[in-house]
């Protein structure tokens, strides 16, 4: 009898320790997603410029087909006189089976200083958000310079 009770207690203890997965679900695509990270311009060329603490906001369209990428107070070189807010609108979005998503576009005219700005035309943009929604990475070419960004999601407190 004691063995039966001991076996039952052990089994219940083991089942209780096998609780549900505590990993938070990926963020809904309808929310603005805020990231903070590092932008690198011309990586590997010997004249690389980096800027830390760059805030990026992803805003997914209501139909889930595109994403706007808003980079806050960014500059691409030490000699650039101003830091700009740059929005890359309407980048094609694909939701992955894993829960993350990828985005890409061949050529987009970004919005800076109140309107579209051909001077900063973005080409060859591609990037992704991992399945947890915590990591963002993307790359593109602007003014003939390769640019890359890696960041982590900032969650509201």
Question: Can you give me a brief rundown of this structure?
Answer:
The protein is 10% helix and 50% strand.
Task: Show the helix and strand layout.
Layout: H1 2-17, E1 33-41, E2 49-60, E3 66-74, E4 84-95, E5 101-108, E6 111-112, E7 115-116, E8 122-129, E9 135-142, E10 145-153
Antiparallel strand pairs: 1-2, 1-10, 2-3, 3-4, 4-5, 4-6, 5-8, 6-7, 8-9, 9-10
Specify the overall morphology: globular
CATH class: Mainly Beta
Helix content: 10-25%
- Total of helices: 1
Find the count of extended strands (DSSP E, 2+ residues): 10
Largest sheet: 8 strands, antiparallel, barrel
Q: Could you name the ranges where pLDDT drops below 50 across 5 or more consecutive residues? A: 2-17, 22-27
What is the string of helix and strand elements?
HEEEEEEEEEE
What would you report as the Rg, rounded to the nearest angstrom?
Answer: 22 Å
Q: Report the CATH architecture.
A: Beta Barrel
% residues in beta strands: over 45%
Trace the largest sheet across and list its strands: 1-2-3-4-5-8-9-10
Total tally of structural domains: 1
Helix- and strand-based class?
Answer: mainly beta
Termini, distance in Å? 52 Å
């Amino acid at each position: 009898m004691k063995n039966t009770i001991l076996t039952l207690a052990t089994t219940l203890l083991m089942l209780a320790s096998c609780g549900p997965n505590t990993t938070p679900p990926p963020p809904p695509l309808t929310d603005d997603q805020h990231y903070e990270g590092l932008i690198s311009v011309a990586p590997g060329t010997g004249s690389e410029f980096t800027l830390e603490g760059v805030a990026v906001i992803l805003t997914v369209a209501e139909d889930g087909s595109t994403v706007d990428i808003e980079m806050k107070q960014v500059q691409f070189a030490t000699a650039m006189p101003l830091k700009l807010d740059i929005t890359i609108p309407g980048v094609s979005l694909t939701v992955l089976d894993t829960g993350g998503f990828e985005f890409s576009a061949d050529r987009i005219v970004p919005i800076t200083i109140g309107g579209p700005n051909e001077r900063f035309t973005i080409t060859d943009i591609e990037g992704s958000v991992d399945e947890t929604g915590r990591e963002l990475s993307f790359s593109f070419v602007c003014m003939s310079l390769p640019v890359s960004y890696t960041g982590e999601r900032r969650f509201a407190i």
